[in-house]
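Hey, can you fold this one?
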Amino acid sequence: MIIASNRTASPGEPKVGGLAVAIWEALRERGGGVWFGWSGETLERETRGVRLFAEDNVDFALADLTEAEYEGYYLGYANRALWPVFHYRVDLAHFDDHEFAMYEEVNRRFGRLLAQFTRTDDTVWIHDYHFLLMGQEMRQSGWEGPMGFFLHIPFPAPEIFTSLPQHNRIARALCAFDLIGFQTDRDRANFERYLREIGRATFLDDGRIRAFDHVFRTKAYPIGIDADEILGLAEGEEGTAAASRLGRIIDQRALVLGVDRMDYSKGLPNRMEAFGRMLDDHEHTRGRVSFLQIAPPSRSDVDAYQDLRAELDQLSGRINGDYGDLDWVPIRYLARGYPREMLAGLYRLSRVGLVTPLYDGMNLVAKEFVAAQNPEDPGVLVLSEFAGAAEQLDGAILVNPHDISATADAIYQGINMPLDERIERWKSMDSGVRDRSIAWWRKSFLEDLEKIPEEVK
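Sure. Predicted structure:
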């Protein structure tokens, strides 16, 4: 098993987060393998080759980036072009030929490095938008074995995807894989529609697709979580301590909670405006409801994120100034991260979980919120219809995050929802979260990928 992701877990340290745990378990279950990715280090000059570390029966192969590659490949094309376009924010995208050339070169170099680790009986699994071109680069380096790709972010409609000047180059490279996995059926359908309308693909009777001289499959594999782990964290010492500490501060008030990276795709300004609108529309909620938004900064070197930080600072300050009182702050806005143990406890304490991205591949916060709840007194999930999780979590109150008034009404509905309805909604969601766990996601994708050699025969 050969797995590539932009960042790997740190060798010798606990594996934190669903994806890191899933990759680690996939490698260990199959008797070992290689986990390849960027080391996290940037150097002035390029260093050839990789650094190797071993943990148990897994080899970590880490490659460095030059400062120019980090600027052009990572901050540049990956996060100033691909990220906004794939999240339907073409208005924020920056198209630069030099940055694409750097993205292409890193994919080429990393693909060739990874190909050196492969043997004829290996299976290769590559992850996410940083490595859209890597499969084709590995094919050109001579790798002919089974190779899968999973996209963790949305795949946009063809009308949006074609705004990328290099859309044909990217689509051609993706079609070098044998299995392409997406978070949702909507993402898969968008990619297939692009292939049908622009890529002149042929759709075979057995469900496979022929495009750009290769035959492959596409399928949705909604990524999940380890629900028992999240529940254990919520009920554990750190989780209960965090809930108790915040409970004393909010003093019996209903808690509305948001937990997101500080990213323009998460809809944080819309969310704050919706909470302020609820206070406008329902005066009796003032002093009785508190909104806690945890938003650790990310990609702070990109201008769009600096602008977002300034907007959130201004919005929270205005709403608190308009509605706050001597003993009540409407919005507690914390621009830093907290351990998963503490977050799980806060999920459990909340009456409403507010997960309203403008567009999101899946959004595991929504699933973690569900898993952390007390079955006898669960909270209510208010979820964007544009999050991938909306395809599965049918017990959530679905909202269009651009509709500020409707989102305000949904928050109010969640705060006042009767216990029996809260329990009924939570049960249906918890069942789905447990059925489609992180283990299910990993096994489903790899089982399908490992059938590829038989299909070829």
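The two ends are 21 Å apart (CA to CA). Let me know if you want another pass with a different chain boundary.
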